[in-house]
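TEACHING EXERCISE
Course module: macromolecular assemblies
Task: Read the component lines below, then compare them to the predicted structure of the full complex.
Student: A.B.
Group: 4
Components provided:
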Amino acid sequence: MEANGEQYAANFSSIKEAQKRISLYIHKTPVLSSETLNAMSGRSLFFKCECFQKGGASNAVLSLDEDQAIKGVVTHSSGNHAAALSLAAKLRGIPAYIVIPKNAPKCKVENVVRYGGQVIWSEATMHSRESVASKVLEETGAVLVHPYNDGRIISGQGTISLEFLEQVPLLDTIIVPISGGGLISGVALAAKSIKPAIRILAAEPIGANDAAQSKAAGRIITLLETNTVADGLRAFLGDLTWPIVRDLVDDVITVEDKEIIEAMKLCYEILKVAVEPSGAIGLAAVLSDGFRKNPAWQDSKKIGIVLSGGNVDLGVLWDSFRK
Amino acid sequence: MEANGEQYAANFSSIKEAQKRISLYIHKTPVLSSETLNAMSGRSLFFKCECFQKGGASNAVLSLDEDQAIKGVVTHSSGNHAAALSLAAKLRGIPAYIVIPKNAPKCKVENVVRYGGQVIWSEATMHSRESVASKVLEETGAVLVHPYNDGRIISGQGTISLEFLEQVPLLDTIIVPISGGGLISGVALAAKSIKPAIRILAAEPIGANDAAQSKAAGRIITLLETNTVADGLRAFLGDLTWPIVRDLVDDVITVEDKEIIEAMKLCYEILKVAVEPSGAIGLAAVLSDGFRKNPAWQDSKKIGIVLSGGNVDLGVLWDSFRK
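Instructor-supplied answer key:
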């Protein structure tokens, strides 16, 4: 797809190729709905449970040719991407080197180990993470797979829209969490290729609102610091995701942390889906006053919400049970 | 279906009728799987997410004729049945009177209110619950719908097997939580009608093992007290469920509370499904030494696990987030 004469890092045909490539390796995720949440929001909501998806990096790993693949893959993300990359590498039978800062939450490290990734520790700073990753690249000859600023990742994420619009063709709007922009770029490219009038909205925490600021400024804005409970949404747009977000994302809805927690609670109690705060932000957005009272979105009636991730740290809950 | 010359409270044709009756009112629930859990258990596991089901009492409510229905329905269960009955009654436009003991967990009361049930308080004793329910029956002329000892409920639950075996025809075993026996009676009746050689196993907490004791004794055994974290599994078999459990449930696997909590943790962290302890007991059973090392179950290779309920009280988790 092109817009403004610009070629993006992914397009409808790379997304359809990704779907063929990964179809044997991914789960088809269900779409849930709830009359209670429909009544609360005043819209018809359809929740695409990507939090059940374990194969989020399959396209990137399966795209590698044999000579590259055999040396393995590297990343210095410690979130869902790290677990997904570990699993995809395991399925292909190649090593995954995951650089993780020493202060990462235990559940994220456990997920990487569970899916067969090799944990390589770094200090907490981005500088240390990057330099450790560079050293691993040098020593192993492995390929760096960035969590979002990568055409293969964007194409893989785009397959969500192919599946979602097949399951619920009548969607007029899709709301997607935004962090580095990989997920929403893929979703937007595929959805607007199938249904050009569909509205794509990003949901972002106020404490990490670089996408909202970037859209307003017309260029990539990064923040000196971020402050949000949604720790999966603290990354900034990259040079490959920004042009897609700029052109194809209709707007960014920002929400407060307390709205995210309230939405997360509704996901557990009503949908019975165990999401992390980042994953619940789409529901927070659709329930926010900023969205509900905005005349511009009154005609968003049938709204798809992507529930992403699931790395919630449940230590506190288990501890309370074990007492 | 008959066995031992006995007619049960439900049968394959009442279950197929229930399916026709409720098809517009229920969600088709997804089946999830996980390579990690397959590796841990040494079997292929298929999780039927009935915890996403909101329509668990639809058949009972839709079966009522108009004259009966208009006066409403009553129950003195405060668990998932109360919420399901409230919702089914709301959809039919009739009142649901839910007798709830004053010490019931807040989340259960909230669920009833959310689905439109009228809460009527009783003391915590079974005597008080029953006498308050009797008074409501007398004053309103409403119909008592028992949470499990009711052919309409058993038939409705049986539709789970119709759906499950359509989604995963190769199942050789289904493991179902057992409490009063309504869920497993329906599942067993339907599954053995479709696939007579299928194995049906009950999963029960050691601290509420009336079903295991009843099977061993050949008659209904009730307990003076129960002690388990799985508060949805504390009911005893009834006169309508016992004959079905006696004849069609192949065995009862008992598990300890700490195994239930561990399985619940795996449901959250790996499946990303928010179940209550009762709902996770099937996974606890399949991971227990008692099951894994028992030669009798070695040929259970493709195991369906019914994940039921979802009324977990998440207060503690939210409080920790709000600090």
